[in-house]
């Protein structure tokens, strides 16, 4: 099996499991386990904190001890074990503890798989966007499968589906991997590959700050997009289709990103992403209509996918192989976890005042991101 196909299948199977956990887990805790909305929200919020701690500290640590492939094996096995604990758990305390443990293990697979892809890109053995597009396809496929199965058999099946997806991921990862992913970190270099050393890389901190602002700005969309569409009187059976428009344009972007943007400067791509993100949230907030919301969904390819691609491109162009796990851990902790958690609270406060304000408030992040991106372009 060639490296492109091997990595594409890893992205596909991981994002299949992510397509179960991200959209459905809060509902699983409420409908299948009998928690209140407040209890489930509290558990998921602490889960985001645990996710950030794991990707910031635990994932880089184990990446300094084992090869990239072995790290994925360890995290997948730990995720399988912890998801089993959800089956007997029923009380708030037990579900709280198991969710913290699961959030510590499972989401770390995201930077682990991205790190493998980054290493292959560095060595000219992978087109990142082409493989990453299979991850988005896996997400969409599983969202549709789960919606059908839970509609027929109930929300209790969600945990079993997640368990099955993780077992599949672990089994497929047992295949022969690219040789570069089997190499253990060199002990002589570990001392020079600390998190602290990352900040000595020119422009790393600026790129990280831009990523934090742009990815965090999706908080209101992730948390309140569904109920906002209900505010716009969209029938429930159409809401899923509208939400999936963003994922479909993401798939199209990643499929062609290497071809069209692989030679661009990350600073230029981040500037475009910041402009697109600002326009997206202004459209949703200032023109509260269904057609405009649908149109704004096409900008997901810019606000999320292009920003993510630019960050990965910066890592592969400017960091040594051994630093990529550290950078991915920091990126996933700050940009994908903690900033989203904080801005979800801000978005919730604004949503209670006026639903449109939750999206308008995200511009507080995108405009500073644009200023930083323009500064980065001028500096370079």
Task: Name its key features.
single chain; 380 residues; mainly alpha; Growth Hormone, Chain: A; 2 domains; HcaT-like
Describe this structure in words.
The chain folds into two domains: 182 residues, Up-down Bundle (Growth Hormone, Chain: A), CATH 1.20.1250.20; 192 residues, MFS general substrate transporter like domains (Growth Hormone, Chain: A). The protein is built from 18 helices and no strands. The protein is globular, with a radius of gyration of 20 Å. It starts with a helix and ends with a helix. The mean pLDDT is 88. The longest helix has 30 residues. Helices cover 80% and strands 0% of the residues. With 380 residues, the protein is mainly alpha-helical.
Percent of residues in helices: over 70%
The run of helices and strands is HHHHHHHHHHHHHHHHHH
What value does the Rg take, in angstroms? 20 Å
**CATH architectural name of the largest domain:** Up-down Bundle
How many structural domains are formed by the residues? 2
- The CATH topology of the largest domain is given as Growth Hormone, Chain: A
Overall number of strands: 0
Low-confidence stretches: none
CATH superfamily membership of the largest domain, which one? MFS general substrate transporter like domains
Quaternary structure classification: single chain
Strand content: under 5%
Task: Describe the sheet with the most strands.
Answer: none
CATH class of the largest domain: Mainly Alpha
Number of helices: 18
Mean pLDDT: 88
Based on secondary structure, the structural category is mainly alpha
The coarse silhouette is: globular
* Cα separation of the termini: 40 Å
Subcellular location: Cell inner membrane
Membrane topology: Multi-pass membrane protein
Keywords: Cell inner membrane, Cell membrane, Membrane, Transmembrane, Transmembrane helix, Transport
Main location: membrane
């Amino acid at each position: 099996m060639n490296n492109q196909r091997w990595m594409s299948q890893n992205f596909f199977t991981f994002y299949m499991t992510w397509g179960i956990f991200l959209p459905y887990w809060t509902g699983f805790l409420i409908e299948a386990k009998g928690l209140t909305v407040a209890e489930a929200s509290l558990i998921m919020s602490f889960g985001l904190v645990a996710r950030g701690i794991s990707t910031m500290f635990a994932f880089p640590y184990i990446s300094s001890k084992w090869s990239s492939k072995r790290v994925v094996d360890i995290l997948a096995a730990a995720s399988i074990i912890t998801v089993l604990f959800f089956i007997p758990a029923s009380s708030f305390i037990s579900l709280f503890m198991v969710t913290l443990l699961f959030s510590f293990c499972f989401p770390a697979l995201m930077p682990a798989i991205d790190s493998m892809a980054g290493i292959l890109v560095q060595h000219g053995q992978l087109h990142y966007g082409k493989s990453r597009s299979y991850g988005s396809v896996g997400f969409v496929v599983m969202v549709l499968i789960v919606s059908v199965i839970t509609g027929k058999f109930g929300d209790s099946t969600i945990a079993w589906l997640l368990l099955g997806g993780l077992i599949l991921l672990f089994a497929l990862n047992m295949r022969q991997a690219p040789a570069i992913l089997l190499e253990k970190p060199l002990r002589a270099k570990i001392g020079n590959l600390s998190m602290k050393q990352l900040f000595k890389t020119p422009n790393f901190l600026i790129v990280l700050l831009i990523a934090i602002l742009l990815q965090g700005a999706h908080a209101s969309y992730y948390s309140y997009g569904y109920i906002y569409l209900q505010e716009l009187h969209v029938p429930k059976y159409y809401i899923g289709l509208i939400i999936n428009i963003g994922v479909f344009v993401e798939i199209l972007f990643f499929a062609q990103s290497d071809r069209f943007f692989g030679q661009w400067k990350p600073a230029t791509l981040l500037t475009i992403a910041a402009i697109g993100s600002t326009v997206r949230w202004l459209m949703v907030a200032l023109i509260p209509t269904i057609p405009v919301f649908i149109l704004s969904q096409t900008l997901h390819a810019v606000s999320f996918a292009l920003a993510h691609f630019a960050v990965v491109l910066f890592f592969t162009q400017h960091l040594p192989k051994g630093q990529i796990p550290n950078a991915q851990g920091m990126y996933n902790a700050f940009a994908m976890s903690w900033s989203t958690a904080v801005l979800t609270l801000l978005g919730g406060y604004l949503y209670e005042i006026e639903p449109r304000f939750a999206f308008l408030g995200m511009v507080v992040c995108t405009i500073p991101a644009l200023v930083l991106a323009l500064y980065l372009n001028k500096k370079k």
